Amino acid sequence: MKTNAQIVASTAGNDQKTSKAQPQNTPQQNQNAQFSQMAAMETENRVLRETIFQLKMELDRYRAPALMLAEVADILEKNAIIKLPNGNKFLVNVSNTVKDLKPGDLVTVEQKNLTIIDKLDRERKVEVEQFVIIEQPTTKWSEIGGLQEQENELKEVIELPLTKPELFKKVGISPPKGVLLHGPPGTGKTLLAKAVASSTHSTFIEIVGSELVQKFIGEGAKLVKDVFKLARERAPSIIFIDELDAIAAKRMDLGTSGEREVQRTFMQLLSELDGFKPLDNVKVIGCTNRIDILDPAILRPGRLDRLVEVPVPNKEGLKQVFAIHSKNMTLDKKMNEDRLFKLMEGFSGAEVKASCTEAGYFAIRENRTKIVQKDFEDAIKKVKRFEEDPSSYIGMFG
To answer: I need a labelling partner for 324 at 20 to 30 A (CA). Which of 88, 97, 107, 288 fits?
Structure first.
């Protein structure tokens, strides 16, 4: 048995052997290790300082008050008169950093004293594009059936002046500025407008008449002006105003302030159609199903020169529309199409499309991919039932 003293002495001897076996670091190596540690700590501190600086900048940006948008009305030496969106005008100071300021520019102003801080490009102002859908339509004339006469009218009034303007110069006449499409709902008025825009490779600007009615006085008229300005910049272009009766209804002497504002917007539209600024390669297509309530001023020659009625298709038109909507469907060879056309008499293009869709649903419910005669007959009855009783629209999807 070893005593405690012997065990302690043996352990101390082993530690001395271990320490002798491990090589000792030189002073240079220790100094290099310290330098490496200091460099790593400095790098970490630099990253932390940059992070803190960025967070402080972000906090300052959040605490900064928002700037207001205004329009420069006039320049008076070192000051300027600005117009706010609510219509109020103020004489304000201009920051020294703002150069080449002129009336009509869009600027940002400080909220308290309305000092002009910066000048914005007009291209940044998206009030117009916020209400306007600008796109290049892909609709082709072959996708429209039963409207051959209306197609020819549109090609003469819209397509020909944009594709062959020299022809009108040789003849010595000015092409019409626009066309009004009127007729029952679902007859293909919007499709006609998209097809003519696609065939002319023009910018298609689609806007609903009710979107031109704004809250503040003068805002609707300004929006109309900006729409036509945008159309001139992107010419050749076509402005399609759907539901034109929303702003072009007959004017009355008596009315509320809201009705008078609609009339101001309408007068701006008339001015753009027949004003001092030529429309050039900008054509206007109006669309309505209530031509009886339109103001005579919009219908006179020189504005919307050509009035084109788009009626429900006749029997030959029904055949063309039916062929377009059923071309991708698998139909039974025993289909009696003449009977279907007789049942669909008086249908619009939209109702023919709805009948094809419903016939497909009847086939799907019976786990079939081929549509038979009964599917179409049941679908036509369903669409007719919906037309006779509009309150049963929920049944269209059941």
So the answer is: 288
